[in-house]
Each structure stands twice: as structure tokens, then as C-alpha cells.
């Protein structure tokens, strides 16, 4: 039996390979391989695709720009004065690869941001055209947050919610591809061997988060905090050490994980020649000199801290994961143990309903005063969150309205002057 796994294109105004890999789809690959099913992967967002004649440039930590093609804007975005693009593999190349592939018995397609659904729908349309007899199963973040929309419009034969581990064996048994007794309950590791070349590896030591911020989907996607065993993570790091130099930790609550200090010890003892990065913001409250020192010794190179805003009432109102003194203390701790200003970054939330512009400007200024790199994190209305209710949107709203750039800068009116001011402050430190 043969399965084809597809990671679709991203349709957006901007996209960057910020240590992105379709982890859920790679877990599907692991499960299928254990069931002795042959797996091939077509990742439209793989910048190292062996099918490319020219590859986009990669920075020292493995990140880089995606190739893209400019496409027509959906009518909702007609007034946005920015180019709308299909990021990833050229469409003709994608179709040609499929036409020259073996006929699959089953196809899995993943999905991420809700407003990227045009890429999901387009790969499904092409897959149906080339392989009309094969069942297509669609999962991922978009199907969890906009299940009805995906059921009604995606064109997939089966749309599932929940994780691959929870659903896949059951689905395969129902479709008659395996016996229910073949199902293994353990947590599988994502299978990175499907990539010819890796600019970076991604590691997940835990899933979920103890907080419940009003704008975040984590509690919806993963209600319980789960930790994975260090044994498997060390095994995976050993594998990555032979293939790449950079590893991004993808946890939502890395410092909350009780196994993390021991993992850092093992990394240091084994002298793994890897650069480590955190791509999601760390909880400042859980950062002390011990853990920060361990991270520095283990060779962490990029440290993102969660701040979002310095407005104390907004900090409390949105979930209380951090306050400004905790953030300032975390920056001090990182500097004390040897991290340089270039290593320290933070996210500043912009455009949440009711958020005051001056407070955003003050948050950026504080970062500059502390010599921390601020990065604007434009608010996206995520279905089922508390903040989503305040936007006036509902489950019938087209998910294109969830686009963070569109929602924050152009909906319902353009905020061009403010955009210029904030961008200038971010890039020059002046306003
Ligand atoms: S702390 Fe971060 S991951 Fe956790 S709920 Fe808040 S925003 Fe989400």
C-alpha cells in the first residue's frame, strides 16, 4: 500500500521560513511506516526541494525566504495595496511531479493557518484531478478551528479534528486498510527522513500550555499539557546532528516542562554540535539563572521571550502569563548568564480589539531601552477564542478575514499612517 502526504502552499501577503515544518504530517508518516505502508512526501514549502534548479538563500540559522508566484487577490482583499502570493513550489512543477508519481492508495493533506485555506483547496483540486480514485484525508490546525468550513468547501473525502495519533489508526481501520489490532498507542516522532536536505530540525518536548490567553488557540488545540520522554528527544537530536546545525524548539511552554533541565544536561554532556533556538515566546516567569545558564551552555542562540504588551491591565485581562517586571527580570537574567543583545527577541502584539496604539509604541520603546529585538506579532482573530467573540465574526465568517495583516492594517479601514510610524520605530528606533 502506498500513501502520499502533501503540505500545501501558503497564500498570503507575506510568509517567511521561520523554522517551519509540517510536524503533524511527519507524525502521520511515522505512524504509516510503522504500519508498513509506503510513504512519499510532497512538501510545497520545502525550500530545499530536489526538484528546484535554484534555491532561495538561507541565513546562518537555517531560515530564509520562500519562492513565490504573485496571484490574484480574493475579492475580500481587493483594497489591500499589497501583492498577494502563492508561496512555495511553482504550481506547474507540483502538477508535473504528481503526474509522474506512482498512483497512491491514500492521500493525506495537512493545513495550518485558517486563512491559508486557498492553498489547501488548490492542492486538493489538483490531487483529485490527477488521482480521481484516491481518497483524500484532510487534517491540521485549520480543520480543528474551522471544521464546518473545511467539511463544506475543501473537497476532501474525510476531514478530521484532533491529532494524527488520535485519529489515524481509527480512520485507516474504518477504511479497511489495517486491522484495529495493529494500532500502537505510543507517541510517534515526526519522520524527517523524508527530506533530502534539512536546513534545520524541529523538536517538540511537550504539547499544550498551562495558561489560557484570550487570543490563543493552544488550549483549544491541546487542552491538556503533555510531556514527551527525553529518551526519544535525545535520539532525535542525535539524528539531526548528522544532518543539520540548527534546531528549533517548537513547544508552547518549553520552560514549564519538568523534563527540560535534565534534557539540557544531556545535551551539554553529549557535546552535540548544534545551535538551538526557541521560536515561540518563553514564559519569563519560569526563567531563572539556573535554567538560563543551562540553556546558554547547551548553545541556545535565539531566545524569544513572551511580552506582547506592557499595559498591566491588558496583561491581566488576556491571561496574566507575564507582567513587565517579570519580563525585565528575564532579560537581566539572560544577560547575566552570557546571552548577548543579539540573542534576545520578544513579540509585541498589535491590533487586538481595544488595544491602544500608544501602549504598542511604549512596549517597543521599552524593548529598545533594554536592547532586546522587538518583533510585531499582528493579531489574528482565531475562532473559538475569547478575543474572536469581540471581533463580531462568527463561524460563518470567511476565514480570509482572520488574516493578521489584513485584519490589523486594512480592516475595516486602512491604518497607513500608523503602519509607517510603527515600522519606522521598529527599524530605526525613532518615531
Ligand atoms: S502562554 Fe502562550 S501558548 Fe500559552 S496560552 Fe498564552 S499565548 Fe498561548
Short summary:
With 431 residues, the protein is an alpha/beta fold.
Describe the model.
The protein is of the alpha/beta class. It folds into 2 domains: 2-182, Cobalamin-binding domain (Rossmann fold, 3-Layer(aba) Sandwich); 200-428, TIM Barrel (Alpha-Beta Barrel), CATH 3.20.20. It contains 16 helices and 16 strands. The strands form 4 sheets. It has a 6-stranded parallel beta sheet with strand order 9-12-13-14-15-16. Strand 15, helix 13 (357-369) and strand 16 (373-378) form a beta-alpha-beta unit. Helix 1 packs across helix 6 (164-174). The chain is globular, with a radius of gyration of 22 Å. The mean pLDDT is 96. Bound molecules: iron/sulfur cluster.
| Structural class designation | alpha/beta
Mean pLDDT: 96
Provide a count of the helices.
Answer: 16
Determine the CATH superfamily of the largest domain: Aldolase class I
Order of strands across the main sheet: 9-12-13-14-15-16
- Summarize the biggest pleated sheet: 6 strands, parallel
Instruction: State the name of the first-level CATH class of the largest domain.
Output: Alpha Beta
Bound compounds, please? iron/sulfur cluster
Radius of gyration: 22 Å
